[in-house]
Amino acid sequence: MSMKLKALLKSPWVFHLSTGSCNNCDIEILDCLTPRFDIERFGMLLAGSIKHADVLLITGSCNRQSVIRLKRLYEQAPKPCLVVAIGECSLSRGLFMHSYNCPVPLDKIIPVDVYIPGCPPKPEAIIAGVVKLIEKVKKEKVESKK
Amino acid sequence: MAKTIVPIGPYHPLQEEPEFFSLTVEGEKVVDIDVRIGYNHRGIEKLSEMKTFDQSTFVIERICGICSTSHPFAYTRAVEDIISVEVPERAKYIRTIIAEGERIHSHLLWLGLAGHFLGYNTVYMWVWKLREEILDVMEILSGNRNNYAMFKPGGVRRDIKQEDIPDVIKKLDSIIPSLTMIKKAVIDDPVIHARTKGIGVLSKEDAINYAALGPTSRASGVARDVRKDAPYGVYDKIEWNMIVTKNGDVFDKVIVRILEVLEAIKIMKECLLTLPKGEIDLNIKDIPPGEGIGHVEAPRGETFHYVRSDGTNRPVRHKVRAPTFMNLPTFKATVVGETISDATIILAAIDPCYCCTERMAVRNIKGTKLYNGEDLIRLSQEKTEKIKRKMGL
Lengths: 146, 393
Description:
The complex is a heterodimer.
Chain A: H1 3-10, E1 13-18, H2 24-33, E2 45-46, E3 55-59, H3 64-76, E4 82-86, H4 87-92, E5 114-116, H5 123-145
Parallel strand pairs in A: 1-2, 1-3, 3-4, 4-5
Helix pairs in contact in A: 2-5
Chain B: E1 3-8, E2 20-26, E3 29-36, H1 44-50, H2 53-61, H3 70-83, H4 89-117, H5 121-142, E4 151-152, E5 155-156, H6 165-188, H7 190-196, H8 204-209, H9 214-218, H10 226-229, H11 250-273, E6 290-298, E7 301-309, E8 315-321, H12 323-327, H13 331-334, H14 340-349, E9 362-363, E10 370-371, H15 373-391
Helix pairs in contact in B: 1-2, 2-3, 4-5, 4-11, 4-14, 5-6, 6-11, 7-15, 14-15
């Protein structure tokens, strides 16, 4: 594991991007920051700019307008960058599977590391998902040493 | 002075749907504004036509996560308008309870974000902590925090259990003291006065001309509320007041929303206490050909749905008009003439749940000066600090 990835796991800064969601997942992400869940105690912080972000939290069904911007943002993100798909829409497009404006699911556009299902997922689920992501990366590190 | 264009959006990381604003500024002053929407288009009206009348409610619910009651409410009313039936009394009460619960959490959400924009992160954290209580209430009543899935044409899907009611009322009562404290804090705070009074004024004439809806119009002295004008649910059987203020500035919009939350708690409690017994669903089987309209007062204003049926089990046409669609053009009247540091809160004041951070840049013609969204929020927060210092706080 690179030095960068190791540093990233200590305190992953998250950047949130809505690609045509109904706001529910977005609000649940914000909820994670507020006193009841307080994700900051794990060192996670909502970054204002993609340039500061370590983890991309993506919600929504990737409509035609946002696909171009999503790609551009992913290119701008400093690597290594981990991607978390939040909510049913970004997993498989869910209800919007047959919509003319949502051509492909998120993982056909950019590589996704963790999927958090739910419509919307509860803040607990989002926190658990990010923790699993950290565990996954750490495990990969151990395996690569062997 | 040279005119500068400030592009805001379409992506900003705090939350909410992407939308694009371009502010034309002269120095600090905003002289023109243009709006571009459509980044969130998912083809919901078309999807709704592909589903049956019963399934459509789930699609409609996902138009907006915050208005996940108002849209199905308006849609079911439109379908019931086609059949011309009245839903059972108990269903009406349950619908009203859920609708008011949504109003409480939506207004609290807005209040928290407004606090954040002004540089009062304490307000943001406090209010969102209160909001969790309401989400708990909704979880007790419907089983989910946000998408309640309670509505279906002809009634509601789930009943409210009698044994849950005392818990719910206790939870509702528990947030009233904190809310009253926040209300007092907002009304007495000199800095909030300085930042919001006389800022982004929407006059009564403008509110009528732009056909503003909901709290945006009520803050400008236009007494317009679907719950009073064309009562639905049980709003005509319950005592409640429409909150109307005169000035139309950001401060009044804050006050209208805080008072509406208290009013909504009152309505919710009364509904829970006087919940009649009986059926909750009409079990509608066939929808005859015809067309119907349904409108309800969403937290942001009037939501309007039109449904046409040709006698099959799917709607032939489904049209949705959300309140923000009507409220957006009022920016022409409110933002123009204000400074950029005030633009953030004015744009937020109509509650499009708008927070502009990411990919927002100010460039002068030579391209030498660059602000991003964070800078703009910083500008807004610095102004508060400056005012605080001036007042010697």
